[in-house]
Amino acid sequence: MRTKKAVSSISYNSPAFLQIVLDEWIEKRKISFYMFVFHLREDDERKNHIHLFVQPNTLIDTMLLQADLREEDPEGKSPLGCIDFRVSDPDEWILYCRHYPPYLASKGQSRKYEYDEEMFCVSDLDTFAYYWDHALCESSWAKNFILMKDIVAVKDPVQLINNGRIPLSQAGSLVAYERLKSNVFRAGRISNH
């Protein structure tokens, strides 16, 4: 695949080898940024692996990147490498790779291990801090998550409309949600026929 968009993959390389190759890509200006995190094997997975994210600097051919990541296995088995690259959103990538429990729950998943900021290997700390903060505070998922927490926590839905958390154009939807939540149709014995 040839792309200028951010891509990600799952790598089975050693972290030291991976970092050397990624630093070379930055030096050759193939990519402008990378981040990866080592994940321990979960119950539904076959082995330990690395989640890798790269931001291209120019049009790249992901098959060539994949070829660069071929590493001799120290145990003499088949060469180590990565699976096919996929176009990736940095917000979704960080939320999943961190194994952030609320995010995983919203996708119907759970994981045994959670990973924090210090466990990620990155090419630039400032860029990573921007991506990390954006994913957890400014992404569309984060905004929806905060809004849902507010809706559950607030007793009076008008308060959310008055302070701008719910746009006036969506006020009717909020009122309908509150009625469904309180089951006013059944509690008030209003017939639906």
Supply the key terms.
193 residues; alpha+beta; Replication Protein E1, Chain: A; 2 domains; five-stranded antiparallel β-sheet; two-stranded antiparallel ribbon; 9 helices; 7 strands; 16% strand; elongated
Give a verbal description of the structure.
The N and C termini lie far apart (57 Å). Helices cover 44% and strands 16% of the residues. It has 193 residues and is an alpha+beta fold. The chain has a five-stranded antiparallel sheet with strand order 6-2-4-3-7, with helices on both faces. Strands 1-5 form a two-stranded antiparallel sheet. Helix 5 packs parallel to helix 6. The longest helix has 14 residues, at 125-138. The protein has two domains: 2-143, Replication Protein E1, Chain: A (3-Layer(aba) Sandwich), CATH 3.40.1310; 154-187, no CATH class.
